[in-house]
Amino acid sequence: MTRVPILLILLAVGTGGCGGTEDDREPVWSYISPAIIQPNCATSSCHSQGAAVSGLNLSTADAGYKSLLEEHLPLRGMTGMPKPRPMVTPFNPDESRVVNMLRATGTWRMPPDRPLAEADIRLIERWILNGAQKD
User: Fold this and answer.
1) Is 85 helix (H, G, I), strand (E, B) or coil?
2) pLDDT digits over 80-90, tens only?
3) CA 44/CA 1 separation, integer angstroms
4) How many CA atoms lie within 13 A of 51 on its CB side?
């Protein structure tokens, strides 16, 4: 009999914070790279130092930042498109190729085997909105 009220109290306390959609993670590259990009994108067959598919090396925070913001990569398979441009357009996630690929908007989805969690994509968008600083 006493287990039921204790269980109800634990359920009420445990679910109190689950209703919100606010992500309290800081949108900074020093978190995003090791927590999201490296484990999901820098795999041995994709964007690791050894593979660097499409010229993207996302294996370290420094290499990933350079690949996403400084490398001007061609737009494969698209004709009549503008000159090659970086994967990230600071302050503009909608114009950032990386976001379009994470969401499969007008292009193929990355990573191809399993999409990133929506919260992770939104965190990357917030980082871009804040100027995509290396921190």
Assistant:
1) strand
2) 555 677 999 99
3) 55
4) 11
